[in-house]
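Researcher: For the annotation table, I need C-alpha cells for Iron-sulfur cluster-binding protein. Please keep the output clean. Sequence:
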Amino acid sequence: MPAFPDAAKRELADSQLRHNLANATTTIRRKRADVVEELDDWAQLRESGAEIKAHTLSNLDIYLERFETAVTEAGGTVHWARDADEANRIVTELVQATGEREVVKVKSMATQEIELNEALAEAGIDAWETDLAELIVQLGHDTPSHILVPAIHRNRAEIREIFRSEMGKVGTPAPDDLTDEPARLADAARRHLREKFLRAKVAISGANFAVADTGTLVVVESEGNGRMCLTLPQTLISVVGIEKLVPSWRDLEVFLQLLPRSSTGERMNPYTSTWTGVTAGDGPQEFHVVLLDNGRTNALADEVGRQALRCIRCSACLNVCPVYERTGGHAYGSVYPGPIGAVLTPQLRGTASEVDKSLPYASSLCGACYDVCPVAIDIPDLLVHLRTRVVEERSGVRDKPMDALMGVASWVLGDAKRLAVAQKVASWSRKVIGRRGTIGRLPAPLSRWTDARDAPAPAQESFRSWWERTRGGKP
C-alpha cells in the first residue's frame, strides 16, 4: 500500500465511491443522533464506558488470568498468541486436528487483522465469511472499507453483479433473474450460505466483549448469521484481542446500550449471543479461545496512546469524519480505517513503514470523532501525540522538501531574535505575495500549501513592532 496521501488521491478520483460513502454515512449519522438524543443519561453512560475500559486496561494482567481460569473451568481451552504468525499457527493447527478442510466465520476484525483467511488458504483450508457485507467483500475479491459495513463502498447494482458472477463458483449460485432489490439480494445470500452452515463442522469467531468473571464471550450482530456459526458446528475457535475484556456481567449493561446506538443507530442489537465454555449436548462440544496480543501490549505501555484500546469498534468516528467520507477505508492501508484506524494501527504495527507514518496525518483534527465516541477516546489528541512520535523517530532525517521546511520553521521559531527578523521580512513581503490580501501561489514545495488554501497575507506591522512603536520597549 502507498502512504495515505497517495492512496487518498486515487480514491478521490472515484466519484461513485464518494457518492456511496456520502449516502451511507449520512444515513447512519442521522439514525445515531436520533437514538442518542432519546437518552437523558447518554453523557453518564459514555463516562461509565470510558471508566470501565480504563480500569480494565490498568489491571489487564489480573483480568486476563481471571478470564483464563473461568474459561478452563467451563470446559474451554485458552491459547496465548504474541503476534499474528503465532495466532494463525494455533488456529490452523486446531482446524487441522479436526480433519476438516473448511470453516465458517463470524465477522471478526481480529481475524482480518492477522490475515487468518490467507493463512488458512495456504494450509488448504477454505474459510467462508457469513456476514452479508463480508460475503460481498469476499466474493468480490475485495477488502473491507468500514468497520461496521465492510462493503459500504459498493452499491446495490455492483453487489448484484458480484453475486451473479461469483456465487456459482464456490457454492449455490445466484438466481438468473436476480435484481438489485435488497430483499432479493439478501435471499440470494441466504440460499448461498445455508448449505455452508449445515455442512460446516468448525466455526471461527471474534468477540465484541469477553467477561473476565465468567469466561463468557459476547457477539452482537444484526443478521443472525453469527448465531448459526456459534451453535451448529462441533468446534468453535474464537480469536479475541486482549483489550476486549470487561470485568463482570454487570459491565455489559453499559456497553449494550452504547454500542448499538453508536454503530447502527439502533436501541439494541437484533442478535446478542453469549456463550460460556462447553455444554453437553448443546452447541459446540469443543471450544478454544485464542487471546491475541499483536502489538496491544506496546500500545498499553504508552500512557497517552493506550486509550485507543478502549475502542469497542462501533465505527461512529468513521461516519462523522470528513476525511473518511471522501476517501473511504481502503486509503488507510489497514483493516482499521478512519480516525480510530489512524491512531490504533500505528500503535499495533509501529511507524516503520511509510503507510503507518502517514496515518496520524490522515485527519483535519476537527474533533467530530471525539464528540461521538461512546467511550470518549480523545482521537485528536492521540493524532497529535502520534505525529510527535513520527517526527521524533525521524530526528535528524530530512529526506523531503517539506521536512526541510519544517526544520527551518523550527529554527526560526526557536529564537526571539530570529523570529523578529522573520516578521519584518514577512511584513515587507506582503507587497509581493499578498497583493489581494491573501497569499498568492508560492514556488514549490510551498505551492502544495498555497494551492489548496486562501491564507491571509502577513500583517503590515507585527505585534512586536507595534508594541515597540507605541510602548517604547520590547514586549
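Researcher: And a one-line annotation?
Model: The first strand starts at residue 77 and ends at 81.
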